[in-house]
Amino acid sequence: MAYSEKVIDHYENPRNVGSFEKDDPSVVTGMVGAPACGDVMKLQLKINEAGIIEDARFKTYGCGSAIASSSLVTEWVKGKSVEEAASIKNTDIAEELALPPVKIHCSILAEDAIKAALEEYKSKKA
Amino acid sequence: MNYFELFDLPATFDVDVADLSTRYRELQKATHPDRFANASEQQKMLAVSRTAQINDGFQTLKEPIRRAEHLLELKGVDIKNETQTVKDTSFLMQQMEWREALEDISHSRDADAADELEQTFKQYRAAITEQLQHLLASDDASVIQNAADHVRKLKFMAKLQDELVRIQDALFE
């Protein structure tokens, strides 16, 4: 299967790989996994008092499409408000990376990682 | 298609693979193309599609994860082609840790650490499989959902095992 140029670019030069300090109170973490392929994804967001995502980090164990999807969303969420980030859809990710149907679950994983991180944000604020 | 019925076996997770193989060979013999040399085109076609079913059924029942997925399917829960994600944080944390440990081993080339991890994976898989066996005996909807979660975990473990074998093979090169 041929990967699109954008997938290859993100795979070879992944953006924002790594972790934030666990104890930083402004950091929330989303952990998700795809049983179909065994991929695991960790997405961390650094959110300021105004509810703006200042920075993002990811760590993904999976195929090229899963790594590219998570790398892409770390770029997309930076500078966005929590509400804007929550509206990112897997279809946007799949379209941007030109993912074939068998790799759509990678984009779903990335969307769900954002959602999981934002859920922690909400429960922290509550 | 109920593959347990095809092989005349009770629909349980507990399958004796040696017995399954014997049944497979007998069924194969009965649909062998040689037996249909003088049959009508329609009968030949039927024999070919039955052979395909028998092969699919054998592959499905032989392998524990696929067998469990088939049992779940028969109980109305299809997880074979699901794109649903798992959000069990403590389980995923453990998966991350094991992935990191594998990464370390591929750099350190520490064969003892690889063996140790292999044992850990084996014990973990055995524990989940044992629970799964009990859960799959039930017809209660919530128990079946729990069984599905166990199968999902085994799928993650299968992926880890593949990675481990790949690294172990590289250590001997």
TrEMBL record, chain A:
InterPro entries: ISCU, NIF_FeS_clus_asmbl_NifU_N. Pfam families: NifU_N (PF01592). Residues 2-125 form the NIF system FeS cluster assembly NifU N-terminal domain. CDD domains: IscU_like. Gene3D superfamilies: 3.90.1010.10. Belongs to the NifU family. A scaffold on which IscS assembles Fe-S clusters. It is likely that Fe-S cluster coordination is flexible as the role of this complex is to build and then hand off Fe-S clusters. This is Iron-sulfur cluster assembly scaffold protein IscU. It comes from Shewanella electrica. The lineage of its organism: Bacteria, Pseudomonadati, Pseudomonadota, Gammaproteobacteria, Alteromonadales.
Automatic annotation (TrEMBL), chain B:
It comes from Shewanella electrica. This is Co-chaperone protein HscB homolog. Interacts with HscA and stimulates its ATPase activity. It holds the Pfam family HSCB_C. PANTHER family: IRON-SULFUR CLUSTER CO-CHAPERONE PROTEIN HSCB. It comes from the Bacteria. InterPro entries: DnaJ_domain, HscB, HscB_C_sf, HscB_oligo_C, J_dom_sf. Residues 2-76 form the J domain. Gene3D superfamilies: DnaJ domain, HscB, C-terminal domain. Co-chaperone involved in the maturation of iron-sulfur cluster-containing proteins. Seems to help targeting proteins to be folded toward HscA. Keywords: Chaperone. Belongs to the HscB family. SMART domains: DnaJ (SM00271).
